[in-house]
Amino acid sequence: MLTAPPCFLVPPPNKEEAAATHRRLLLHPEGDHLTLINVYNAYIQHNEDEAWCTTNYINAAALRLAVLIRAELLEVMQRIELPVSPPAFGCQDNSTNIKRALISGFFLKVAHDVDGSGNYLLLTHRHVAHLHPFSSYRCRRPQPGPPNWVLYHDFTISHDNCIRTVSEIHPHMLVELAPQYYLGNLPSSEGRDFLMELRQSLLPPGDPEEGGEEGAKARGEGPSDPRNQVSTDMCLIQ
């Protein structure tokens, strides 16, 4: 769904409220990334019906492409004999694991609200943007307050200065999963300082915080350390 074009269509001028009403039925409380999974699952449950897409102001072509991409990913996983298990979508553990996977891959696309009113500073660009009007955080009724820290997928400056496909994340998860070099190379900002302080607070007492093999030895990590063992968990494809 992230590779496919945006799934929500821009409605005609006299259909905005109707489109928003249909869109709210598909929103996920955990943010836009999980909303995309909701949309995909609903599309499959309706037998990939294009009429359903039209009624709900959904881009049918985008969902057809998403189906093809998912099938290709599943084929690759089976070809290289990765164990695959069905996702338990909807449970909290599954939602958390999805966010952890997203942060691991897109840690460069993080922003934080600088004033509590939805003005987001992009950590890697020092540019301020706001949430896209189709974001679940702006469509829900009653509308919740803007999340403090978010992971976003797209940023457009030329058209509407928005971050799109946004989900709330917890800073400690970013500190845990982002590479060590990431925080140290961010441009100076309050957000960077907060993350650096958070990382220091999470380090064990006396941790030398050195990289490489020597650092691992100094921290007592080695091949037998549980953190360095290969996970035996099955792969999930949503």
Automatic annotation (TrEMBL):
Looking up InterPro entries in the UniProt record yields: DEAD-box_helicase_OB_fold
Region (Disordered) residue spans:
202-238
Q: Where is the composition biased (Basic and acidic residues)?
A: 214-224
Query: Which molecular function terms from Gene Ontology are attached?
Result: helicase activity; RNA binding
Q: Which residues does the UniProt record annotate as the domain DEAD-box helicase OB fold?
A: 98-181
| A single cellular component GO annotation | spliceosomal complex
Q: Which Pfam families match?
A: OB_NTP_bind
The family database entries (PANTHER family) matched by this protein are listed as: ATP-DEPENDENT RNA HELICASE, ATP-DEPENDENT RNA HELICASE DQX1
| The protein's name in its UniProt record | DEAD-box helicase OB fold domain-containing protein
Please tell me the species this chain comes from. Alosa alosa (allis shad)
